[in-house]
Amino acid sequence: MGYKTKEWRNSMRVRLDYNNMTDTFLGDKGFSAKKLSSYSSKATAAFRFVKENRGKDELFMGWTELPYNQKEIVADILATSREIRKKFQYFVVLGIGGSALGPIMAFNALCHLHYNDLPKNKRKGPKFYVEDNVDPVRMRDLLDVIEPEKTCFNVISKSGATSETMTQYLIILDELKKKGVNIKDNVIFTTDANRGNLKKISDELGGIKSYVLPDGVGGRFSQLCPVGLLPAAVVGIDINGLLAGAAYMDGLCKRPQPSKNPALMSAVLQVAAMEEGKNIGVMMPYSDNLKYLADWYCQLWAESLGKNVTLDGKPCNVGQTPVKSLGVTDQHSQVQLYTEGPYDKVVTLLSLDKYACEMPIPHGCENIPDVAFLGGHTMQELIQAENAATAYALTKAGRMNYTLYIPELNAFTLGQLLFLFELQTAYAGAMLNIDTFNQPGVEEGKKATFALLGKAGYEQKKAELDSLPAKNENYII
Ligand code: PA5
After folding, report:
1. From ligand 1's centre to the CA of 130, what distance in Å?
2. Measuring from atom 5 of ligand 1, which residue has the nearest CA?
3. Which residue's alpha carbon is at the smallest distance from atom 15 of ligand 1?
4. What is the CATH number that goes with domain 62-239?
5. Cβ of residue 85 lying under 6 Å from some atom of ligand 1
């Protein structure tokens, strides 16, 4: 693997603790060893399915090989990102869904939480923005804070047909033209190698610098390809560390027994819980840096598992609604529901053994015991105590929860988490016998948008929309 020493890598291993899913801690609300072992054959079949189909583009399983097959691409990205850092003041990603959530997640996980507000000499790269909406106010406000001629725009779209991304592109193109900038100097595409509109645009303009979003890699599995790697490298993230972490987790998941494979065990726990009516999966990191990892995970889990037909064509309505929750912030909003509401959730806690810094709590207010006891502790102690206390309170209330312990947050441990969740999703999809890698359910809304904006070829859809019954005014109050 060649990333630091074996000893260091092992000291950075992400660990799964699922005690609080078991009957030892939850009584009759938890899984017995017998219940968990009843999933062995399903789990082994899922393991085999994923193993046998690794790297197959036609099944959208190309993501499994990303930790191993990008040596030249990584070298190119590192060289390009050095140039970008020299030449530009701003770096803006235009993309949506899988083309945006990964870059947002890695930036927040591994950069200063107020990165853009730091003075230039304290930042590792240009100011960084990811625009993943078509709210006009957001676009206006972006244009207020960047200078397009000093900005590198990374347009990320596999299809080049995504209305949101292409709308942003048209606006930026216009801005660059107004400033007399040659688009080739300020724009980088990340897109399909051979198909799609960005490829066409690039060819027409005589070649825009482009990175490939590989064939067998779907949007939500794309963080470890140029979609995520270029933006990460630009802000100084160690992308070799991300890939090494992913490979390390892959190595920890080589065995077919769930008890020896953290991603497979996590999939078993979630699927078994879903089958008992736990329709909600809460992702609760105790780290502001991991707030957007929860967003990224929500897309991965929701879009991959929310399906209405099995692989053999039988109707089904499966999936689990992912919810993001931030520790400790959401202890003061959501945890009441989690401990006393319906028994319909599994909570995944992400716990850091060590934060990037300590923050001592000074002594003070000595005559107010409610406050004085805090003095002499540290913020790390407080957040870790609250994390442990939430796990305890959930368990005491009979609520399923498990913890992923992260030794510290760095590129290597983040890479482990990404690969763990991707594998977990692939295993869970195989156990549910669905196509994990498609997303037919998002198409209807896209078609209706095309029809409403008068796109050629969508006349029938427009007629369908026009034929809806008129709204009953009595129901609008
Ligand atoms: O996960 C997915 O496949 C989606 O979220 C896509 O990433 C998103 O719809 C953007 O698609 P494209 O990259 O074609 O613009």
Report:
1. 15
2. 97
3. 157
4. 3.40.50.10490
5. no
Whole-structure pTM value: 0.96
Nearest protein Cα to ligand 1, atom 8: 97
Tell me the domain boundaries of the chain.
2-57+253-431, 62-239
CA of 368 to the centre of ligand 1 (A): 54
Q: Is the CB of 218 under 6 A from ligand 1?
A: yes
Q: Under a CB-based contact definition with an 8 Å cutoff, are residues 54 and 207 in contact?
A: no
Cα 193 to Cα 239, 298, 390, distances in angstroms: 22, 28, 47
Known catalytic residues are 303, 332, 446
Task: Classify domain 2-57+253-431 at the CATH superfamily level.
Answer: Glucose-6-phosphate isomerase like protein; domain 1 (3.40.50.10490)
Compute CA distances 293 → 202, 323, 334, 344, 351, whole Å: 32, 12, 18, 22, 13
Instruction: Report the distance separating Cα 139 and Cα 148, nearest Å.
Output: 12
Q: Which residue is listed with tokens 């992912």?
A: 322
Q: Give the pLDDT confidence of 198-245 residue by residue, as tens digits.
A: 999 999 998 999 999 999 999 999 999 999 999 999 999 999 999 999
